[in-house]
Amino acid sequence: MLARFSFDADYVRRLSEGDAETEDHFARYFGDLIRIKASARLRSGHGADDIRQETLLRVLRTLRKGAIEHPERLGAYVNTVCNNVMLETFRRDKRLTELPEGEIPSGQAGAESGLLSDERRDLVRRALNELPAKDRELLQRIFLDEHDKDVVCEEFRVSREYLRVLLHRARIRLRTALHQGRGRAAG
User: Are residues 92 and 14 in the same domain?
Assistant: First the structure.
């Protein structure tokens, strides 16, 4: 582990100009810190190396664009970029996680899940019928029929921003109607 280092404008200038000695120091100094940080949160050493390389690459790109305003805060900036790269990696890995063996979907739902799905569909249909016609039509157009929002804006004679407000209000009313419907079904 290298001793703590203080960064200044000259160091950042040399790094952004591609000085080999400064780049080597930068890669060793921050590479070790990033690898330690990433290894503590990841299972694989390869993943920690990937995070280290991506972090260093992003920081160097930013430096070469001249976007670092406070050279003395370079360490904090590298840490922030590292955190962002790790979060992106976690999100990506979560999306790509495979199903455990033995839990491969068969493509056909069981009888119980089919009944639950039918019950939910009926509950939503009843809740939609309780909504005002404008809300019902808006939700139908956007979420069920998947119409283009710009076309719906023209039909309802509203701006895109106000459509967002109308959808928000309609969803709140639908959620309220669903909760009321569940209460009646349970009682």
Answer: yes
